């Protein structure tokens, strides 16, 4: 390994401004606390909780709940969530992804006229996990009351807030799609909630959701019990029954989030952590495990891009074949992350682009936020409805916008991720965390469907291999593998690199819209001073609130 890379393992570049990449943002520094997320009002809500005496966990819950109100284009009360929590020198993982209803099956879905899982309607709706995640995090690690941390979200739902530019863009885009595609009566409540004047609200226009506020009050008052085993669960079950859905109040009553042991690989002296399957964080880890066998001296080179793309697509085809509910996986996580398997996959990477195929390992629309406090607690948290607004289903008068995670199930009974009653599907949302020598470096994440593990790989390499500070790490030009040999690159990727990738057999498309390349946040903690360094995306309305 060359000396440049050896040097990079000593410390992360918290204070260097190596490559601004045209962004006007700078890394934010603070000592007492920090909240980084995709929406300024939500970030400020988390900071307010820190200033009231809450810890990073309280701030994460407040920010997450607030995001269901102020960024409904990406998440909602009816979505799933995952968290990585660093506290008292240990990293904890929480999987709050809900299973398919017990009454659903491949046969029933096909009987309803579907040859594959639909995107919209009640069929792809799975049990929402987000409210349970908030309550569980509060109960185990919070300092303030659950009702206190949900107050900012309730206030914004009741009083309203003005739409920000990126939010307004995606809201209008979703409205135009839904107007064309959502025709049944089951979708009426979505339009009543999110297009009350017969259109999407404009940027700067106030939007409020009284039903959302009442639901959040009920969740706060009952510690989320009403959502799963009370009045709110009853409303969801009745709405589902009214429109032939599979979700029942019994499905909700049986759900509890699961504490899990995070998984990791060591990359150049740092431990990179992810939530284990059914999440796709293992994709990032497999790719990094493959890439650590190469030397990288320059970020903006065709050779670097080529090897990154080849590694990620090999990891993805494995994950899409094998990753599903961990209780039903046919291969082991240990096998997928083994050094031997990484060597096998690495040997496939040559000069030219390959057509990726799954290997044979040993058998066995999303919002992201990061928080940190002065006491050393740090949280990496992500939640989503999937594909923007999700299923297009809103439970009438509640503001509960339901996810469509079931869309990722296969209706092929022989597929590893085949639909089964009570099964959790392959899940795209993933929080990340970085440590070194058993000490926290900090949380990181990149939201955006299948871009997420690709973003994680690029973020980690930007920070560790190429010495970029948090803001430069996020601002750097990105690529995204789509399928087969097809790759999209941002306009900021140098033209000579795109040309060289095309000569190597990659089918390169230059994207005019950077919205497809993820929207991430980072908070690193300096190991000596405890100073926090944060970055957030120029690709979103992102903001860092700090003190």
UniProtKB/TrEMBL annotation:
Protein keywords: Acyltransferase, Hydrolase, Transferase
The record's listing under Pfam families reads: G_glu_transpept
Coiled-coil intervals: none
What EC number(s) are associated with this protein in UniProt?
A: 2.3.2.2, 3.4.19.13
Task: Indicate whether Ligase appears among the record's keywords.
Answer: no
Q: Would I find Transferase among this entry's keywords?
A: yes
* Annotated SUPFAM superfamilies: N-terminal nucleophile aminohydrolases (Ntn hydrolases)
What protein name is recorded for this chain? Gamma-glutamyltranspeptidase/glutathione hydrolase
């Amino acid at each position: 390994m060359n000396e440049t890379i050896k040097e990079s393992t000593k410390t992360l570049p918290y204070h260097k401004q190596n490559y601004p990449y045209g962004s006007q943002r700078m890394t934010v520094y603070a000592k007492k606390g920090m909240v980084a997320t995709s929406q300024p009002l939500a970030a400020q809500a988390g900071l307010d909780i820190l200033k009231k005496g809450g810890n990073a966990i309280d701030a994460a819950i407040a920010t997450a709940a607030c995001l269901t109100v102020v960024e409904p284009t990406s998440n909602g009360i009816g979505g799933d969530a995952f968290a990585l929590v660093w506290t008292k020198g240990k990293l904890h993982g929480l999987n709050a992804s809900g299973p398919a209803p017990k009454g659903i099956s491949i046969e029933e879905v096909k009987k309803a006229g579907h040859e594959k899982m639909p995107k919209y309607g009640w069929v792809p709706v799975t049990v929402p996990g987000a409210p349970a995640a908030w309550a569980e995090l509060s109960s185990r690690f919070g300092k303030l009351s659950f009702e206190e941390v949900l107050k900012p979200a309730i206030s914004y739902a009741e009083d309203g807030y003005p739409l920000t530019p990126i939010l307004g863009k995606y809201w209008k885009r979703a409205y135009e799609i839904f107007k064309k595609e959502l025709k049944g009566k089951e979708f009426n409540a979505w339009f009543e909630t999110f297009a009350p004047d017969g259109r999407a609200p404009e940027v700067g226009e106030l939007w409020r959701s009284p039903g959302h506020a009442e639901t959040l009050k009920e969740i706060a008052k009952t510690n989320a019990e009403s959502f799963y085993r009370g009045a709110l669960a009853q409303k969801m079950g009745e709405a589902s029954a009214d429109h032939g859905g599979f979700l029942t109040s019994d499905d909700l009553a049986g759900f509890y989030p699961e504490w899990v042991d995070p998984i990791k690989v060591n990359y150049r002296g740092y431990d990179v952590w992810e939530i284990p399957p059914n999440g796709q964080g293992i994709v990032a880890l497999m790719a990094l495990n493959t890439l650590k066998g190469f030397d990288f001296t320059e970020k903006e080179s065709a050779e670097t891009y080529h090897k990154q793309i080849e590694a990620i697509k090999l990891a993805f085809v494995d994950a899409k074949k094998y990753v599903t509910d961990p209780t039903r996986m046919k291969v082991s996580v240990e096998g997928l992350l083994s050094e031997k398997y990484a060597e096998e996959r690495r040997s496939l990477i040559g000069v030219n682009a390959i057509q990726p195929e799954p290997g044979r390992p040993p058998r066995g629309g999303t919002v992201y936020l990061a928080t940190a406090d002065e006491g050393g607690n740090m949280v990496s948290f992500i939640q989503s409805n999937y594909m923007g607004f999700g299923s297009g289903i809103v439970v009438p008068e509640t503001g509960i916008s339901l996810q469509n995670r079931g869309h990722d199930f296969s209706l092929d009974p022989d597929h590893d991720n085949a639909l089964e009653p009570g099964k959790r599907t392959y899940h795209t949302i993933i929080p990340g965390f970085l440590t070194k020598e058993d000490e926290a470096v900090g949380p990181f994440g990149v939201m955006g469907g299948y871009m997420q593990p690709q973003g994680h790989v690029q973020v980690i390499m930007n920070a560790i291999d190429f010495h970029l500070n948090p803001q430069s790490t996020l601002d750097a030009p990105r690529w995204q593998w789509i399928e087969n040999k097809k790759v999209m690159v941002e306009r900021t990727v140098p033209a000579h690199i795109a040309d060289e990738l095309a000569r190597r057999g990659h089918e390169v498309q230059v994207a005019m819209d950077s919205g497809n390349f993820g929207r991430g946040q980072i908070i690193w903690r300096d190991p000596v001073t405890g100073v926090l360094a944060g970055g957030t995306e120029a690709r979103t309305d992102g903001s860092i609130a700090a003190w």
